[in-house]
Write a structure and sequence with these properties.
By secondary structure, the protein is mainly alpha-helical. It is built from 6 helices and no strands. Helices cover 72% and strands 0% of the residues. The longest helix has 32 residues.
Length: 200
């Protein structure tokens, strides 16, 4: 099984898409499933922001990775910095919508509206990431470097998932991700839930 970071991220995207599709089509079990989507989304975003985005930003700034020489400007990565900023912002927006979705009664009419809003943000984010960010990453990092990034990405992702499940078990089940408190978005809940989380 390929362990390079691009394969892992793309696989994660497909799994999240499949889970969101089930969430839309299977009303029974929505509460458990939305918790799992929240946990996986938080883990995925944290791993990308820790391991992938910094590499693309450095490449876009002209400090190229393993494939190009140190200090070389890599044309394929020039737009990467703005793409990464947009990607991180999309993680926050989707996380905030997901926080509201976690707090919403799955049988209420507002649940489907929030689910559609979340899906719209995620679809846009995945498309941009797979057509711009990941190709920029491939342009500046050699295959061995992509494998190393994949190891770090997976360590962080698994640590986040483990922590989310431990938090859920400590709360007596429910969502696999920290629930937002009143007036707090999912990003604040994720931060609260991430305190003390294992670092990759």
């Amino acid at each position: 099984m390929a362990r390079d970071v691009i394969t892992l991220i793309t696989r994660d995207h497909r799994e999240l898409e499949e889970m969101v599709d089930r969430l839309a089509k299977e009303p029974e079990g929505r509460e458990r499933l939305v918790g799992e989507v929240a946990a996986r989304f938080a883990a995925h975003g944290a791993a990308e922001e820790e391991h992938v985005y910094p590499v693309v930003v450095r490449a876009a700034a002209g400090v190229a990775g393993d494939r190009a020489g140190a200090g070389a400007v890599v044309p394929e990565a020039e737009g990467g910095g703005a793409d990464v900023v947009r990607g991180a912002r999309e993680h926050r927006v989707a996380g905030e919508v997901l926080g509201r979705l976690c707090a919403c009664d799955p049988s209420s009419p507002g649940f489907d509206d929030l689910l559609h809003e979340f899906v719209d943000v995620v679809v846009r984010h995945v498309r941009e990431e797979e057509t711009r960010v990941l190709p920029a990453l491939r342009a500046v990092v050699d295959p061995a470097g992509l494998e190393r990034l994949g190891e770090g990405f997976e360590r962080t992702r698994v640590a986040w998932l483990r922590r989310s499940r431990e938090d859920a078990a400590g709360r007596g089940g429910g969502s696999g991700a920290p629930r937002p408190r009143a007036g707090e978005g999912a990003s604040a809940a994720e931060e609260r839930g991430a305190r003390g989380r294992p670092r990759g």
